[in-house]
Design brief:
By secondary structure, the protein is mostly helical. The chain folds into two domains: 36 residues; 38 residues, no CATH class. It has three helices and three strands; from the N terminus they run ααβββα. The protein has a three-stranded antiparallel beta sheet.
């Protein structure tokens, strides 16, 4: 009877050690995945805003980085990209 208890105890001891080893390895892998970011490029890449240019509709040679009035005729300056989009929609 004592021998049976000894076998059960050693078997349970081995099973517990195996379970602890598996648990430790799973925890290590999980911790390694959580600590490393998924993609380094998302943090390092900074999207530069598009440089906006403003121009006069009557005098396309007049450009500015800021909205305002045309120095030649006094008309309100418009975005160059907006002017291109309007021209593209008129062609259709």
């Amino acid at each position: 009877m004592l021998f049976i208890h000894f076998l059960i105890f050693t078997t349970m001891k081995k099973a517990m050690l195996m379970a602890m080893a598996i648990l430790f390895s799973v925890a290590t892998v999980f911790a390694a995945r959580v600590s490393t970011p998924l993609s380094d490029t998302t943090k390092t890449k900074k999207v530069k805003p598009a440089k906006v240019q403003y121009t006069c509709t009557m005098h396309p040679e007049v450009t500015s980085d800021k909205p305002g009035k045309c120095p030649k005729c006094g008309m309100t300056l418009v975005k160059k990209a907006a002017a291109k989009q309007k021209a593209a929609t008129k062609k259709m």
